[in-house]
Design brief:
CATH class: Mainly Alpha
Radius of gyration: 16 Å
Largest sheet: 2 strands, antiparallel
Shape: globular
Oligomer: single chain
CATH topology: Four Helix Bundle (Hemerythrin (Met), subunit A)
Order of helices and strands: HHHEEHHH
Number of helices: 6
Protein backbone atom coordinates (compact mmCIF):
# COMPACT_ATOMS: atom_id res chain seq x y z
CA UNK A 1 0.00 0.00 0.00
CA UNK A 2 1.24 3.49 -0.82
CA UNK A 3 2.34 5.63 2.11
CA UNK A 4 3.31 9.31 2.50
CA UNK A 5 6.96 8.22 2.62
CA UNK A 6 6.60 7.01 -0.97
CA UNK A 7 5.74 10.53 -2.09
CA UNK A 8 8.75 11.90 -0.24
CA UNK A 9 10.96 9.30 -1.91
CA UNK A 10 9.68 10.35 -5.34
CA UNK A 11 10.18 14.04 -4.59
CA UNK A 12 13.77 13.55 -3.41
CA UNK A 13 14.54 11.52 -6.55
CA UNK A 14 12.95 14.20 -8.74
CA UNK A 15 14.89 16.96 -7.03
CA UNK A 16 18.16 15.16 -7.76
CA UNK A 17 17.18 14.57 -11.38
CA UNK A 18 16.19 18.19 -12.03
CA UNK A 19 19.31 19.49 -10.29
CA UNK A 20 21.46 17.54 -12.76
CA UNK A 21 19.80 18.74 -15.98
CA UNK A 22 22.54 20.49 -18.03
CA UNK A 23 22.15 24.25 -18.20
CA UNK A 24 21.80 24.17 -21.99
CA UNK A 25 18.80 21.82 -21.66
CA UNK A 26 17.01 23.71 -18.87
CA UNK A 27 14.86 25.85 -21.18
CA UNK A 28 14.64 23.38 -24.08
CA UNK A 29 11.30 21.57 -24.66
CA UNK A 30 11.47 17.93 -23.56
CA UNK A 31 9.31 17.12 -25.51
CA UNK A 32 6.63 19.76 -24.86
CA UNK A 33 7.40 21.59 -21.63
CA UNK A 34 10.94 22.58 -20.71
CA UNK A 35 12.50 20.99 -17.61
CA UNK A 36 12.06 24.32 -15.87
CA UNK A 37 8.35 24.54 -16.74
CA UNK A 38 7.88 20.91 -15.75
CA UNK A 39 9.39 21.43 -12.32
CA UNK A 40 7.30 24.56 -11.80
CA UNK A 41 4.21 22.52 -12.76
CA UNK A 42 5.03 19.84 -10.20
CA UNK A 43 5.11 22.46 -7.46
CA UNK A 44 1.77 23.83 -8.72
CA UNK A 45 0.22 20.38 -8.72
CA UNK A 46 1.34 19.37 -5.24
CA UNK A 47 0.14 22.72 -3.86
CA UNK A 48 -3.27 22.18 -5.43
CA UNK A 49 -3.45 18.63 -4.10
CA UNK A 50 -2.50 19.87 -0.64
CA UNK A 51 -5.26 22.50 -0.74
CA UNK A 52 -7.81 19.89 -1.81
CA UNK A 53 -6.78 17.45 0.91
CA UNK A 54 -6.53 20.11 3.62
CA UNK A 55 -10.05 21.41 2.93
CA UNK A 56 -11.52 17.96 2.17
CA UNK A 57 -12.69 19.57 -1.06
CA UNK A 58 -16.18 18.79 -2.35
CA UNK A 59 -15.80 20.86 -5.53
CA UNK A 60 -12.97 21.55 -7.95
CA UNK A 61 -10.62 24.21 -6.55
CA UNK A 62 -8.83 26.97 -8.39
CA UNK A 63 -5.06 26.43 -8.25
CA UNK A 64 -3.52 28.37 -5.33
CA UNK A 65 -0.30 28.64 -7.34
CA UNK A 66 0.19 28.89 -11.11
CA UNK A 67 3.88 29.10 -11.80
CA UNK A 68 6.68 31.39 -10.63
CA UNK A 69 8.69 32.57 -13.65
CA UNK A 70 11.22 34.34 -11.42
CA UNK A 71 12.15 31.30 -9.34
CA UNK A 72 15.61 29.85 -9.79
CA UNK A 73 16.29 26.16 -10.30
CA UNK A 74 17.46 25.80 -6.70
CA UNK A 75 14.37 27.57 -5.43
CA UNK A 76 12.06 25.32 -7.45
CA UNK A 77 13.81 22.16 -6.25
CA UNK A 78 13.44 23.40 -2.67
CA UNK A 79 9.78 24.22 -3.27
CA UNK A 80 9.18 20.74 -4.66
CA UNK A 81 10.60 19.22 -1.50
CA UNK A 82 8.54 21.51 0.73
CA UNK A 83 5.27 20.98 -1.10
CA UNK A 84 5.80 17.21 -1.10
CA UNK A 85 6.42 17.33 2.66
CA UNK A 86 3.29 19.44 3.12
CA UNK A 87 1.11 17.09 1.11
CA UNK A 88 2.64 13.99 2.72
CA UNK A 89 1.95 15.43 6.17
CA UNK A 90 -1.66 16.20 5.32
CA UNK A 91 -2.19 12.72 3.89
CA UNK A 92 -0.63 11.13 6.96
CA UNK A 93 -3.43 12.78 8.94
CA UNK A 94 -6.19 11.65 6.60
CA UNK A 95 -8.29 8.76 7.91
CA UNK A 96 -8.91 5.69 5.78
CA UNK A 97 -12.55 6.62 5.19
CA UNK A 98 -12.00 10.31 4.43
CA UNK A 99 -12.24 11.68 0.89
CA UNK A 100 -11.46 14.88 -0.99
CA UNK A 101 -12.65 15.68 -4.47
CA UNK A 102 -10.29 15.46 -7.43
CA UNK A 103 -11.77 15.78 -10.94
CA UNK A 104 -11.14 12.05 -11.34
CA UNK A 105 -13.33 11.23 -8.33
CA UNK A 106 -13.65 11.31 -4.56
CA UNK A 107 -10.11 10.27 -3.76
CA UNK A 108 -9.02 8.60 -0.55
CA UNK A 109 -5.51 8.84 0.93
CA UNK A 110 -3.94 6.20 -1.31
CA UNK A 111 -5.66 7.68 -4.35
CA UNK A 112 -4.09 11.07 -3.65
CA UNK A 113 -0.72 9.45 -3.08
CA UNK A 114 -0.98 7.52 -6.33
CA UNK A 115 -1.90 10.61 -8.34
CA UNK A 116 0.80 12.76 -6.75
CA UNK A 117 3.45 10.10 -7.28
CA UNK A 118 2.32 9.65 -10.90
CA UNK A 119 2.80 13.36 -11.52
CA UNK A 120 6.27 13.38 -9.98
CA UNK A 121 7.52 10.16 -11.56
CA UNK A 122 6.17 10.63 -15.07
CA UNK A 123 6.89 14.33 -15.51
CA UNK A 124 10.41 13.98 -14.11
CA UNK A 125 11.20 11.01 -16.35
CA UNK A 126 9.80 12.87 -19.36
CA UNK A 127 11.67 16.11 -18.68
CA UNK A 128 14.99 14.64 -17.54
CA UNK A 129 15.11 11.42 -19.57
CA UNK A 130 15.80 7.88 -18.34
CA UNK A 131 18.68 7.32 -15.94
CA UNK A 132 20.12 4.30 -14.06
CA UNK A 133 18.95 6.00 -10.85
CA UNK A 134 15.37 5.33 -12.00
CA UNK A 135 15.72 1.63 -11.19
CA UNK A 136 15.42 2.41 -7.49
CA UNK A 137 11.91 3.73 -8.15
CA UNK A 138 10.74 0.59 -9.97
CA UNK A 139 8.81 -0.80 -6.95
CA UNK A 140 7.12 2.56 -6.44
CA UNK A 141 6.17 2.81 -10.11
CA UNK A 142 4.60 -0.64 -9.88
CA UNK A 143 2.69 0.27 -6.72
CA UNK A 144 1.38 3.48 -8.29
CA UNK A 145 0.09 1.64 -11.36
CA UNK A 146 -1.57 -0.98 -9.23
CA UNK A 147 -3.40 1.68 -7.25
CA UNK A 148 -4.52 4.32 -9.76
CA UNK A 149 -4.03 2.67 -13.20
CA UNK A 150 -4.93 -0.97 -12.45
CA UNK A 151 -6.11 -1.79 -15.98
CA UNK A 152 -2.64 -1.22 -17.49
CA UNK A 153 -1.23 -4.33 -19.29
CA UNK A 154 1.26 -6.53 -17.41
CA UNK A 155 4.91 -5.51 -17.39
CA UNK A 156 7.47 -3.90 -15.14
CA UNK A 157 6.45 -0.86 -13.11
CA UNK A 158 8.04 1.88 -15.19
CA UNK A 159 6.86 0.37 -18.48
CA UNK A 160 3.30 0.09 -17.19
CA UNK A 161 3.35 3.63 -15.78
CA UNK A 162 4.60 5.15 -19.03
CA UNK A 163 2.07 3.18 -21.10
CA UNK A 164 -0.82 4.00 -18.78
CA UNK A 165 -0.10 7.73 -18.94
CA UNK A 166 0.28 7.81 -22.71
CA UNK A 167 4.06 8.19 -22.83
CA UNK A 168 5.24 4.94 -24.42
CA UNK A 169 4.02 1.62 -25.81
CA UNK A 170 4.23 -1.53 -23.75
CA UNK A 171 5.27 -4.35 -26.06
CA UNK A 172 2.60 -4.46 -28.78
CA UNK A 173 0.21 -2.30 -26.76
CA UNK A 174 0.22 1.36 -27.85
CA UNK A 175 0.37 4.18 -25.32
CA UNK A 176 -2.89 5.10 -23.62
CA UNK A 177 -4.80 7.88 -25.35
CA UNK A 178 -4.66 11.52 -24.36
CA UNK A 179 -7.86 11.01 -22.35
CA UNK A 180 -6.21 8.55 -19.90
CA UNK A 181 -7.31 9.07 -16.34
CA UNK A 182 -6.87 7.78 -12.82
CA UNK A 183 -9.02 5.64 -10.58
CA UNK A 184 -8.60 7.77 -7.47
CA UNK A 185 -11.51 6.43 -5.41
CA UNK A 186 -10.85 3.27 -3.36
CA UNK A 187 -10.04 0.23 -5.49
CA UNK A 188 -13.08 -1.53 -4.05
CA UNK A 189 -15.18 0.91 -6.09
CA UNK A 190 -13.45 0.20 -9.42
CA UNK A 191 -15.81 -1.29 -12.01
CA UNK A 192 -13.02 -3.08 -13.92
CA UNK A 193 -12.97 -0.69 -16.90
CA UNK A 194 -10.24 1.83 -17.78
CA UNK A 195 -11.03 5.37 -16.68
CA UNK A 196 -11.21 8.17 -19.22
CA UNK A 197 -10.85 11.90 -18.62
CA UNK A 198 -14.15 13.75 -18.43
CA UNK A 199 -12.90 17.21 -17.44
CA UNK A 200 -10.21 19.46 -18.93
CA UNK A 201 -6.78 19.75 -17.30
CA UNK A 202 -6.20 22.79 -15.11
CA UNK A 203 -2.84 23.63 -16.73
CA UNK A 204 -1.80 23.70 -20.39
Amino acid sequence: MLTPDDLLLAARWAGRRFALVPDEMWERPAPDWTPRRTLDHLVDTLELYAASVRTRATARLDPPRDGDPGASRAELVAQLTLTAEKLAGLLAGMDDDERALHPSGLADRTGWLGMAATEVLVHTREACGPDPDDDALEPLAAAVVGRVLPWTPPGDGWARLLQGTGRAPLGDVPPAGADWWWHSAPLAEWDGAPRRRSSPPQWR
